[in-house]
């Protein structure tokens, strides 16, 4: 197994839900709008013995005419055409921007043409109804009726007998999280329910979550279980520690 963080950079996000690039050597957080959060935007590639998995797809920014997520994969020696499964936690614009791109005729094409996309259908319907600024519908409308999209309808289930998903309805109404079984132990991706390592160590309710209290309780539950069982945690918005390995038999206290 190989885990590759695909960082698209650091950003601040305020009440306007606009992601503004942040350079730690040049920018000051207190100069951004009041209440701005500092986050990394970081999809993950997991090279499994059965698949090349992509966990969420970033902001969808382009560099010199190529999707940044494609550039990042290629820098790690992965051809975007080699990705076989794309697992979507939810469809907020910083997680779903790279699911597609516009070809030279202006038509939307899936960014990973040989992959099967696993998407919660209720999340798609909710995102279409809600729209901007949280969702950019044009970026994922290509999912509708596309043969390479596998719609998930249940609150929990398994994919190919080694990936488990569960709808939490915590960060957003139909948010889902994933467990991936590997020869090296369980890999857990909590999306925006568990976006940063430091959030696993503190009990707090975030105002930006659909159900902040549930998020808090789930983080505590996952952290304690993952520590005891040696999970590998993937943190999508963590600047310093995107991948954290739990220690079997050790349960760290939550403050």
Keywords summarizing the entry:
single chain; 255 residues; alpha+beta; 6-stranded mixed beta sheet
Radius of gyration: 17 Å
**Inertia-based shape:** globular
Secondary structural class: alpha+beta
| Helical residues, percent | 10-25%
Kindly report the spatial arrangement of strands forming the biggest sheet: 1-5-6-9-12-13
Query: Helical region count?
Result: 6
What's the average pLDDT? 94
Distance between the termini: 33 Å
Structure write-up:
By secondary structure, the protein is α+β, with helices and mostly antiparallel strands. It has a single domain, classed as Metallo-beta-lactamase, Chain A, CATH 3.60.15. Helix content is 19%, strand content 28%. It is built from 6 helices and 19 strands. The strands form 5 sheets. Strands 1-5-6-9-12-13 form a 6-stranded mixed sheet. The chain has a 6-stranded mixed sheet with strand order 14-15-16-17-18-19, covered by helices on one side. The two termini are 33 Å apart. The mean pLDDT is 94.
